[in-house]
Amino acid sequence: MEAGKQNRKIITVSFFLAAFLTHIVTRVLFETLGGMVAIVERWRSQDLFRHGVPLFIALVVFVLLQMNPKVVAWADEVVHEIKKIVWPTQRDTVVTTFAVCVMVLIAGLGLAGIDYMSSVLISWIVK
Q1: Residue-level pLDDT at 57
Q2: Alpha helix (H) residue ranges in 1-127
Q3: pTM of the predicted model, to two decimals?
Q4: Tally of domains within the chain
Q5: Do 112 and 72 share a structural domain?
């Protein structure tokens, strides 16, 4: 498959996901506003407003993203740059994760020791 077509598919899916998130955020905002403003609650009780308006806004976002050449060029550059990333192997990821867990455990034990010693010192001073 040609790289340009593959990038275009990735961009379209990304724009679709952005529109879907816009739909969710719009519905949540309408629910929140419905609890605060009576007229919004009245509108929200209608199916057209509750489902149609967020869907329309999401559709507008998708179309605006797809039809804006500057946004499409930017997204194409982003996809191109992400493809250049050299991702670590599974073994490298496991080893690094294990090292981080060991270091967190050591730091936690060190802080616990310092906390215990400082509480003993303060209780000795207070007595």
Answers
A1: 94
A2: 3-36, 38-44, 47, 53-67, 69-83, 90-126
A3: 0.64
A4: 2
A5: no
